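Q: Hi! First time doing this. I have a protein sequence and I read that you can turn it into a structure. Is that right? Here it is:
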Amino acid sequence: MEPHTTEHHTKWKSPTRDRPSQKLLSVPPMSPRIRVRPWWFPVQELSDPLVLYMEAWLAEIIFGPNQALISEIEWISQALVRVDTVDSGNLAEITICGRPFVKNRLKNILLNLAVWHKEHNVQRATKLKQLEEFLKTLPSDSNNNLPELVLEALAE
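A: Yes, that's right. Below is the predicted 3D structure, encoded as structure tokens:
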């Protein structure tokens, strides 16, 4: 019988054996367009997709950098989502596959998120513009207590 000790196993291991981390690094990344249909998604729902368009910067905010949040959105909504950039990167084409009520619900959620992010962006831009105008009106000798003045201006 062979001994079952760690010494026995280590002497037979090759020092150049691939580690899992090295193996992952050597495999080229999978294309985001090549996907396997999830087990929970019925094949029949792929036939009639819903397509909508939004600005690319909004799609990046909603779906995350490199569309990292798509799988979570798909799992929660039980719909398949594909996001492609069109029109030289200015527009994002969002394709939603699923049951009709799921497609409409997800479309409404995405459009409401887009409206919220647009409004938030406008509010932030107006606050920054007000802050710039406020800083221009300050006398140069009040720079020593500038953080307090900035906080007061933002509160107004």
